[in-house]
Each structure stands twice: as structure tokens, then as C-alpha cells.
Amino acid sequence: MGAKVSTVMSSRGASNRRGPPTDHAGPAAGRERRLDIHVFVSEAGGLATGRAWERCVWRDARVLIAECPAPHLPASVESALRAVAADVARDRGWQGMGTVAFALDDRSGVFRVIDAQAQAHAGTAVHDCEPVAAHALELRIDGCVDRRLPCTRLLVCGATRGEVLRRAYRALSEMPGPAGVDRAFLMNRIASRAYCSGLTGTRLDQAVG
User: Fold this and answer.
1) Is this prediction's pTM over 0.85?
2) Which of 38, 60, 130, 140 is deepest in the core (most CB within 10 A)?
3) DSSP state of 198
4) Distant-in-sequence, close-in-space partners of 13: CB < 8 Å, separation ≥ 6
5) CA dist., res. 170 & res. 4, Å (int)
6) Any bridge partners for residue 35, and if so which?
7) What number of CA atoms fall less than 13 Å from residue 73's CA on the CB side?
8) What pLDDT sits at residue 15?
9) What angle (nearest 5°) sits at the alpha carbon of residue 24, between those of residues 19 and 27?
10) pLDDT of 20 higher than 60
11) Distance in angstroms (rounded) separating the CA atoms of residues 205 and 178
12) What are the pLDDT digits (tens) for 102-130?
């Protein structure tokens, strides 16, 4: 699948975290996917881009699971996303970390930039743009609905996607205390055949119900 790009950007100022942003509305109905590319620009001008994170599981316009690398994302599309993210960082004169967010039509391969956020004065090394393992899953659990309560973030890493999914399910099942709404929802999604097969976003919701 080839990649085509249209650019629609908005800037919301600096962000103080590396993970995928959670403040966008969920993906549009159909086959649209939401992906993030982290960019690092050193003071000497060196630039590196990380692999694509996908906001895989949504609930009430909140991202509950982000995954890297994005499931079944063609290498040509990921390369195009990384190239556009690098261009955005250069055009805006970024230094340090930044994140460029994309919406991708999974059928046509057309994608657009929907947000670009710089993180000022980040002291991260260039190689830190890459995930800490071959596969990584970030889960956000409970408390997110009520902004006054903390949102638990769980980073699960492994050598394969299957290993990461098994570890994530076990971690959720062994967490102390009563299972909140988000936690039960996440366990249902992770255990579903649709998510295990690589469906994400709206396609996953349509398959699982």
C-alpha cells in the first residue's frame, strides 16, 4: 500500500511527556487510524525519529492503549510518516523532543498531520526515540474520567506482540484492589480475537461491539 499525505496541522504548545497524546477526539468512523511519531533534534542539529505508536484502544475519546510498533502498518507507510514528522520538526525549528500526530486512512494509505507538539529543552539522547523493547504497550487505567484522580500508566514490553499482550493481561488481572471500569474494559479488549489479530481503533470497536 502506497502512502499519500495531506497536511492539516494545529499547534497546542509544549508537552511535557513522551507518550502519545490523549486529548484528541477519537478516530472517525471507518478505517481511520491515529498514529504518533516522536522526533528528537539535538542542539548540534542531529535528528532522529522513532517508530510509529498507534492509539489502538479508545473509550469516551480517551486513549487507553497505545502500541509500538503499530500493528500491521506497512513499512512504506511508516517510513513516509517518519519523513513527514522530520520535515515538520525542521520547518518549526524544534530542539529536543516533539511528537507529530497523524490520521491514516487504512484503505487508501492517505494520511494527514493533525497535531504537532514540541517539548522544550528535552535532554533525551537521540537513540531514546526508539522503544525500550522490540514491542511495547502503554495502558492507561482508571481515574482518567475524573480529572481530579490520577491515571495509572502501565508500560509493558516484550520481544513479540503476543508476549506483550499476555504480560499486559496478566498485569491487569493481578493489580490490587477492585477492577474499575477501564480495567475490565481493557482486559476484554486485550483478550479479544479481533485485537489479537491486529484490529485497532474504530475497526476494533466494530468487531468487538
Assistant:
1) no
2) 38
3) T
4) 117
5) 39
6) 54, 102
7) 29
8) 36
9) 105
10) no
11) 25
12) 999 988 889 999 999 998 654 554 445 56
